[in-house]
From TrEMBL:
GO terms for biological process: DNA replication proofreading. GO terms for cellular component: cytosol. NCBIfam families: PRK09182.1. Gene3D superfamilies: Ribonuclease H-like superfamily/Ribonuclease H (3.30.420.10). PANTHER family: DNA POLYMERASE III SUBUNIT EPSILON, EXODEOXYRIBONUCLEASE 10. Residues 41-208 form the Exonuclease domain. Signal peptide: none annotated. One of its GO terms (molecular function) is 3'-5' exonuclease activity. The lineage of its organism: unclassified sequences, metagenomes, ecological metagenomes. This is Exonuclease domain-containing protein. Transmembrane segments: none annotated. It holds the Pfam family RNase_T.
């Protein structure tokens, strides 16, 4: 495990504090500071769902919190929007999902997300952010008419946690390694913990949120190992390729400056001959779809 160096310790024991988000309440001042280049309006969100199927399952809880982040001082200027809601689904909550979030069907009976409020909050954000954003976005895109027009960022993919000394990108583990824990897998608790993690006071320079903001402004590239021989699947997987079951190919996310090196690797170790793969640019608005 990789705890931050400033974590509190007593002899050979690590001391964790419980974080409850009480410092992230909405400001009473409703005057928003629009148009300033040194500030970003970032909407953090999280969903709890009936299951893991992005096409067939449904949202049962949504939390959103928009903050104004100052890029010069690396600090939160204010909390400007908060919204959370249960949502009664049209399908049962799967047992595996209930074991994770503990939300019972009777708790959410008759509840409904107000998508007009969701759209208004999304409209005012410069950036929409979630941990493992491709999961959350799949559900938000189905209910919101604004989501497809926004740039999404992912605190799992847009931050190189490994280079920061952490061997796993799961939110709960990262929080523990930063010295705190929280009541996880409830939407607003997850949102508050993510904000605290990305703006953690441990980082005097280059906090995770700044790395994320920088990467959110860049497209990424999808390297597709089309027609890769079956016997190379373990080699591809070991090099962080993912299997696209619908289109039947292995693929990997790259930055622009990594493309040529990856082509050379595929040519030598996978194709053993001419490069047969494809490279696709994923634009800012298409990221994490």
């Amino acid at each position: 495990m990789s705890f931050i160096s400033k974590i509190e310790k007593i002899e050979d024991k690590v001391v964790l504090y419980k974080y409850d988000g009480s410092d992230l309440q909405k400001d009473s001042d409703n005057m928003l500071e629009f148009g300033q280049q040194n500030q970003k309006r970032i909407c953090f969100l999280d969903v709890e769902t009936t299951g893991k199927d992005r096409s067939g399952d449904e949202i049962i809880e949504l939390a959103m919190k928009t903050l104004l982040y100052d890029l010069d001082s690396h600090s939160i200027s204010k909390i400007i929007e908060i919204y959370e809601s249960y949502n009664e689904p049209t399908i049962p909550i799967k047992k595996e999902a209930f074991y994770i979030h503990g939300i019972a069907e009777e708790t959410i009976r008759g509840e409904k997300i107000d998508w007009e409020i969701v759209n208004r909050i999304l409209s005012g954000a410069d950036l929409v952010l979630a941990h493992n954003a491709s999961f959350d976005r799949a559900f938000i895109d189905k209910g919101s008419s604004i989501s497809n027009q926004k740039i999404w960022a992912c605190s799992l993919e847009d931050i190189n946690w490994f280079e920061r000394g952490f061997s796993n990108g799961k939110q709960e583990l990262l929080c523990i390694w930063h010295g705190f824990y929280y009541d996880s897998h409830r939407a607003m608790n997850d949102v508050d913990a993510l904000i605290h993690l990305l703006t953690h006071p441990y980082y005097e320079q280059n906090p995770p949120i700044m790395e994320l903001i920088d990467n959110a402004g860049k497209p990424y590239y999808k390297m597709m190992a089309i027609k890769s021989p079956f016997e190379t699947k373990d080699t591809l997987k070991a090099n962080n390729y993912k299997w696209d079951g619908e289109n039947k190919y292995w693929w990997k996310r790259l930055n622009f400056d990594e493309i040529e090196q990856e082509k050379d690797w595929l040519t030598e170790l996978i194709y053993d001959g001419p490069f047969l793969g494809m490279v696709e640019e994923i634009s800012l608005l298409e990221k994490y779809k």
